[in-house]
Amino acid sequence: MLRRLDDPFHDMPQAWQSGSLVRPGGHSISWKSTGAQDGIPVVVVHGGPGGASMPGLARLMDAKVWRSIFFDQRGCGASTPIGALEGNTLQATLEDMEILRLHHGIERWVVAGGSWGSTVALAYAETYPDRCMGLLLQGVWLCRRADIDWWFYGVRTLFPDLWETFSSAVPNEERKDLRQAYCQRILGKDRSVAADFATRLYLYEEGFMHFDPPLQPPDPSRGADYGRIFAHYVAHNFFLEENQLILNAKKISHLPAILVTGRYDCCTPPSNAYDLKSVLPLADLRIINGGGHYPTEQTMAIAVSAAAQDMAHILWQKGK
Question: For residue range 307-318, what is the model confidence (pLDDT) as tens digits?
Fold first, then answer.
């Protein structure tokens, strides 16, 4: 069947291998492999923190070209125990990725991710640059203080009604530090309050992440586990030093990188990708007019699919 020229989606590849990795602290990391067994290996890192892998994203990558490996981060998706916070750190996730690479017998791979997944992908590449062939990043998020402040306060510029609902859940005197107010309640001992505020946080984020109207409303039942892990990472500054990803970018300056960001991304604004490009002179920055945050929305899907194709050509030309 012929595809339209503006159709970014390939046929959905079937997972030809799946499993779980037993890790320290009782964590089990779920993973799946799709695409060509002899294709270019790429590990796809999901967003959040607290999200789950989306194997459907493999439709944006030619299954005849790419060997895609998806995994669920600690406490997320099909990984167990679900919602667990103990031993759940960015550094532990980077180690999980290394064990996953070794488990599959891969010498080097492309690291791909969007939103929080781009944060993890960047941190991994800067920690293990010799294990990376390149980076495919969408919706770059650097988790600097300014980026986190945008999430809790800047969004009000475009979504004042949504922000009012989010902020009004706490007393007026606590609204100067919504980050602390939400984290205290979500990570507190009162489970009912924790679940309520975690769900509020989840619905708040879902409210400003979409550029195109979503096909269906968000599922509140996902909120408690998502918000709990998100709050855990927020409370620990996402386990990053201030501006760490920019300061360490010199370690990956030799790697090909394509940065795709939506002009109207209200979750991870284009300033993140723009600032990263300023310290990665070889990176290809693509700011997509009419694009938002989600890679599966038509405008962004076209751009992400093209980026995957272009990265494959770059690697072929380099003889990788």
Answer: 999 999 999 987
